[in-house]
Write a structure and sequence with these properties.
With about 525 residues, the chain is α/β, with parallel strands linked by helices. It contains eleven helices and 35 strands. A hairpin with a 3-residue loop joins strand 31 and strand 32. Helix 2 packs across helix 3.
């Protein structure tokens, strides 16, 4: 067979149409047995491959500072019943680069096939690397898969890996990843493999937390799948997803997981220069006709789209727009409703495999409780096993009740209204203690946005005060129509009688923007610093 024929058969074996598998802007690598049968690169990605008697040696690198907007597609395969494929990889994700790889390993006819992989992976400081590996095996279990990886995750870098058997018998799988985690690095490792009959499955994942503030999370093989299916059940059925947030965050990762579970190809917008409404609008043109349309955004992205000509029209094409990462202001929801945009506020975190409460209601099989201090507890099959290498924190944060339900003790406080809707009032460590009384910043923020004219965004924090211990302080971003700055006296005048006196802001600053961190979350520590300067 020609290389083109081999590529077509490889793609067919993983359920892809060989006639239209990828766009011209998608990098791809196809390896059959010991032959490189397909290779397409994009700017910033380098591949040096050497064919050997039994496989391929490949050096793969991503240039420093490069942001690959779409996943690199890799296909490893052995199509005959018998064969050996030895893949040796040397992968370097250079400083501050962002890249994700989606690898399909396909052995659809295996009777006696061995697939061996030995990888050395280095994620340099500030870089982000996600590697998703999907396996297609035959029905007889005649495959022996032995992947081993040695990973170095440097300071401030992030590494995510997922291994999943999506079709066929496991056969024999001996999976081993060993990771060295530098200061402030983040590692997420997940494996989802279901065995039956005489399948043999060994999973060994190790993370050495060598640096300060390094952390790693372990998620069970069913957690992300259960979360994805609960989402589709709640939204009205599976559909096609548009990825508009980074895939290395749990919300972005879940967009890909839901797509895989639904069997629909995800769309991805170009985030190289950050989020641009025009790029989002353009990306919506790629949906499959007739498919339900979904996406996941943060509140600031929704605001920017509603402000942009054509943004509201693009949002209206979605059956649902999940909004998480930060609290959704009531005024934003009201504005979206007027524009006939269906927003769904989500609440969750990495430890719960993403959002597990939608519009204040728990997803199927998720449990919500409040403890005596109003701290939110979340339970169900999507809860992680714990924090890798941090047994004390795991014992403090996770637990299993007498009914076998796993629980996660969040850092958030909240309340449940008369209709049974959960309201998240804020993080425990964000609460402001002023004059001995507690103030939840989110409640003050919502009141300001609803009752004070001329304010587009606001973040409320506590700042040191010699009399009160801490005082309520508001950083505001004015709307374009505002005619003058807003003072603390203005805020107090509008909010008196709406908030208790101790919750009224005593300090106020205006700013052209709100400092953010992660996927659209306000950086409250940075805001606090603005009130303590001088």
């Amino acid at each position: 067979m020609t290389n083109k024929d081999v590529v077509a058969e490889l793609l067919q074996s993983i359920g892809m149409d060989p006639g239209h598998p990828f766009g011209d802007d998608v990098a791809r690598i196809e390896i059959h047995e010991n032959r490189v049968v397909g290779l397409k690169l994009v700017a910033g990605l380098h591949v040096d491959a050497e064919e050997t008697d039994s496989g391929v040696n490949a050096v793969i690198s991503v240039d420093g500072g490069t942001r690959l907007e779409k996943p690199v597609h890799i296909c490893f395969g052995v199509l005959p019943e018998d064969g050996l494929q030895q893949i040796n990889l040397d992968i370097r994700i250079r400083q501050d680069a962002h890249a994700s790889f989606l690898a399909h390993c396909t052995f659809p006819n295996a009777v006696n096939v061995r697939h061996l992989m030995d990888a050395v992976i280095e994620v340099e400081p500030g870089a982000r690397y996600a590697y998703f590996e999907r396996h297609v095996h035959g029905t007889g279990g005649g495959v022996n898969v032995v992947p081993y990886a040695k990973v170095m995750v440097h300071e401030g870098a992030e590494f995510t890996t997922e291994f999943e058997l999506i079709k066929g018998r496991a056969g024999r799988i001996d999976f081993a990843y060993e990771t060295e985690c530098g200061p402030r690095s983040v590692v997420d490792m997940t494996a989802r493999i279901n065995g039956r009959a005489d399948d043999s499955i060994v999973i060994r994942e190790k993370a050495h937390l060598a640096g300060a503030e390094a952390r790693a999370a372990l998620v069970t093989h069913i957690a992300l799948r259960d979360s994805a299916r609960a989402t589709h059940a709640t939204l009205g059925g599976p559909g096609q997803w548009l990825l508009a947030i980074p895939a290395h965050h749990i919300a972005g990762l879940q967009v890909l997981v839901r797509s895989l579970d639904a069997g629909t190809p995800p769309l991805a917008m170009d985030l190289t220069d950050g989020f641009r409404p025009a790029a989002f609008i353009a990306a919506t043109q790629g949906f499959i006709a007739g498919a339900r349309r979904y996406t996941s955004l943060v509140p600031t992205q929704v605001v920017r789209l509603l402000d942009h000509p054509g943004g509201g029209d693009a949002l209206r094409t979605f059956d649902a727009v999940l909004v998480g990462g930060a609290a959704m202001p009531p005024r934003l929801r009201a504005r979206a409703e007027r524009a006939r945009v269906h927003l769904v506020a989500t609440y969750g975190m990495s430890e719960t495999a993403g959002g597990c409460v939608y519009d204040g209601r728990a997803l199927p099989r998720t449990e919500v409780e409040l403890d005596e201090e109003a701290r939110i507890l979340l339970g169900g099959p999507t809860i992680a096993h714990g924090y890798l290498g941090l047994p004390a924190l795991t014992r403090e944060t996770f637990g299993t009740d007498e009914d076998g339900i796993r629980w996660f003790r969040t850092d958030d406080v909240g309340h449940v209204d008369d209709d049974g809707t959960l309201h998240v009032d804020g993080r425990v460590d964000d609460l402001i203690i002023t004059g001995g009384l507690k103030v939840a910043p989110r409640l003050v923020e919502e009141a300001i946005l609803e009752h004070v004219p001329g304010i587009r965004e606001v973040v409320v924090v506590g700042s040191p005060d010699h009399e009160w211990g801490a005082c309520v302080s508001a950083l505001v971003v004015l709307s374009p129509a505002a005619v003058h700055d807003v003072t603390a006296a203005d805020l107090r005048a509008h909010l008196r009688g709406i908030l208790p006196d101790h919750a009224l802001p005593r300090r106020a600053l205006t700013s052209p923007s709100i400092p953010i961190r992660g996927p659209g979350k306000p950086d409250r520590r940075a805001v606090e610093a603005m009130f303590t300067v001088g």
